Each structure stands twice: as structure tokens, then as C-alpha cells.
Amino acid sequence: MFKAIIIGGSAGSFQVISKILQHLPKDIPVPVFLVLHRLKHVRLGFVEALSIKSNIPIKEPYDKETFQKGIAYLAPANYHMYFDFGNKITLSTEEQVNHSRPAIDISFMSAAYLFQDKLIGVILSGANKDGVKGMVSVQEMGGVTIVQDPKDSQIDTMTQGTLNVMDPDFVLNQKEIASKLIELLK
């Protein structure tokens, strides 16, 4: 049984994330962690925009918050998001990684270490290669890996970069990703 889903994306991923959140069941039995690149000074409106169509509540966690199933946690602008024993989320303002904070690699590596083979990792459209090392970590720890098909990505640098270094469990278009997540959680 899986214990968490983590989704990373950048340029071109907002609509895909919205569609995924729209199709996830209200009683989803795991937390969903969202690590999306965004402007560091844009702090308002992102959660609200994602919440419009989402079936599950979305929130930006505070430091040391205990995560729970059935909630999507969006990494706050300008903070790295880590996961710790005791179901805790830790936030950090350490140096940017891959020109990003939050960095997808950091969150994915942290989640892979904590959840190991009970994690589902998803990489979506993006304009840099942040997330590639993180997805490799998810795979190395036994988690399930899903990459948005580069042909279906608005910007394929992140998705194609991931495919260049690993063979994920699934390469899916945006319509197939939510269905696959639901199938995996059954």
C-alpha cells in the first residue's frame, strides 16, 4: 500500500496539476505533495487557483506541520520542502538548487528516503532539469515513477531530461496520469 504521492513540475505544468487534482478521489488514502516552480514573490492566489477544481483540500504547510492523508500540500514559494519521520514537513530557505526554491530534486529525494517503495513520484512539464535526480532517487528506493510524455508536455526539458537518464515505470499523457494514480492506490 502506498503512503504518499509527490508531483513536481514547472513551466507548463499548472493545467496538468489542475486536471490531476480534479480527478483524484475526495477520500484519497495518502497525502499528495506538490513541488512547483513559481516566482518567489508570488505568495497569494496559487493555492486558491488550484483549489477551484480540486477534489481534495490544498494547503501550503507550515514548518514542522504533521501531514495527513487526503490533503495536497503545496511547497510554499521560496522554501524547500522536506519530509521527516513522525509525518512532519520541514521547510528551509537554504541555497537554491537548480536555480529553484522550492527544488523538486530536494523534495523528491527526501520523500524517497522516507517513503521508499511506498511512494509514487510524478514529473510533469518544465523548462529545466530539476526533478531528474529526484526521480532517480524515487526509483532507486523502489517507488513507482511516472513521467509525463514529453510529446504531451508544454515544455519538455524536465520530462525528456528524466527519460534521458532513467526508464520510468510509466510514461503517460496528462489524461492518463490521474487514472494511473487512482489505479495504483486501489
Tell me what the structure shows:
There is one protein chain. Helix content is 31%, strand content 22%. By secondary structure, it is α/β, with parallel strands linked by helices. It has a single domain, classed as Rossmann fold (3-Layer(aba) Sandwich). β8, α4 and β9 form a beta-alpha-beta unit. α1 runs parallel beside α6 and α3 packs parallel to α4.
Alpha-beta classification: alpha/beta
Which architecture name does CATH use? Answer: 3-Layer(aba) Sandwich
In DSSP terms (H or I, runs of 4 or more residues), the helix count works out at: 6
Termini Cα gap: 8 Å
Beta content comes to 15-25%
Low-confidence stretches: none
For the largest sheet, list the strands in their spatial order.
3-5-2-1-8-9-10
- Count of distinct structural domains: 1
Largest sheet: 7 strands, parallel
Within CATH, the superfamily carries the name Methylesterase CheB, C-terminal domain
Q: Report the mean per-residue pLDDT as an integer.
A: 94
CATH topology: Rossmann fold
Give the fraction of residues assigned to helices.
25-40%
Q: How many beta-strand runs?
A: 10
CATH class: Alpha Beta
CA radius of gyration:
14 Å
> What is the molecular shape?
globular
User: What's the order of the H and E elements?
Assistant: EHEHEEEEEHEHEHEH
